Amino acid sequence: MAQLWGGRFTKETDRLVYNFNASVSFDQKFYRQDIEGSKAHVAMLSRQGIINGEEAEEILKGLNGILQDVQSGKLEITDEYEDIHSFVEANLIDRIGDAGKKLHTGRSRNDQVALDMRLYARDEIKETDALLKSLLTTILNIMQEHTQTVMPGFTHLQKAQPITLAHHMGAYFEMFKRDRMRLFDLYERMNYCPLGSGALAGTTYPLDREYTAKQMGFYGPTLNSMDGVSDRDYLIEFLSALATVMMHLSRFSEEVIIWNSNEYQFVEIDDAYSTGSSIMPQKKNPDIAELVRGKTGRVYGALFSLLTTMKGIPLAYNKDMQEDKELTFDAIDTAKGCLALFDGMLSTMKFCKKAMLKSASLGFTNATDAADYLVNHGVPFRDAHGVIGRIVLHCIDRGIALDDMSLEDWKQFSEVFEEDIYDAISMETCINKRLTIGAPGKAAMERVIEEEKQYLDQSSIISSVE
Fold first, then answer.
1. pLDDT tier, 73 (very low <50, low <70, confident <90, very high otherwise)
2. What does the pLDDT look like over 22-42, one tens digit per residue?
3. Active site residue 460
4. Which of 25, 261, 277, 463 is catalytic?
5. Annotated catalytic residue: which of 156, 406, 459, 464?
6. Which of 128, 206, 328, 344 has the most crowded Cβ, counting Cβ within 10 A?
């Protein structure tokens, strides 16, 4: 059992205790970050004269060799090591001898693991941001193509007013754009380096923490060594941001599932993103959307688990904090996988324009505009509301849409109606006369689409701050 400690102890750790305590089975995930942090630390130690240049060169060469061998599969990370830090240091000493024993000068596993996790989270935030940008690009492409594709807008899952598919998709564009903003805000807060905090009280060695931080792309060092080793706020914020992403994906998935149903038939999901039934040959199931919806709870669970773990921990580092890794890794992998799969499903999905238009027409989504017609001809709104309500009942009884009524039928309810009622309640008119920014009218949508294109043409929000 390769451990970085033992001088204080007179007998071996019980194997069950060792296994319970060990983290290499999961923290090996950030071997690259551990080596990156070690290289920055060694460069700083040499620069400060804490180790000599020859020793630093040996250590750096050894670390690069370990990194290459792990990446190529030549060197395996096994459970004989307690954690990834033990693995790197033990292999370094095996390769270069006593010089490797100086790697840990001026640092503790407490600030080392805090650094590794922060580097890992920072990398994953960038990857998540890239996946969100890709999904936004897919959504924007649909918006551009469907500014005149009429569909019903809903409230309470009841057909309400006519909108366009572009307008509906635009709502999700705003959601996922805000998700990117949350990642950016988080990145700004967490991009400070904890290395040099030591176990909790810093170190007597003359470390240059600003130099170390700069080497790894941090804005600077953390300003309190106790907080540096015990802060996991950035993980809680990251999981919270991922939970919000998943909530948005789940809402979207729910709509795809409804739209894919026999009753709606608004969309046809590509065969590559559907499955069939083992017994019912006619079935084509929206499994990807359902799994995304289901996995949302998994990411929520990770957030609440970490909040619960952290709520009773006194300063500074405690072993409880080892529990941050597995659930965070799982939540990140889950969210990233869902983003990639949903993007693929959405980009290959076909939209059934005729079914959407028919649904909007038969759903009386133009009833509000019929009431507005009366108001514009001097009828008080409350009276107009009542007249149109009675007309809708009449149409339901006859199984027709408002557009199917004759002018004689209209006049039975109010003499105010004239031939121009048909233009006033056409789906195109109902949509396109709504011209305020954010509304579904074609001119308003084209203006929004242009703004969203400019937004996506910018470089990644996160890479732009580096």
1. very high
2. 678 888 999 999 999 999 999
3. no
4. 277
5. 156
6. 328
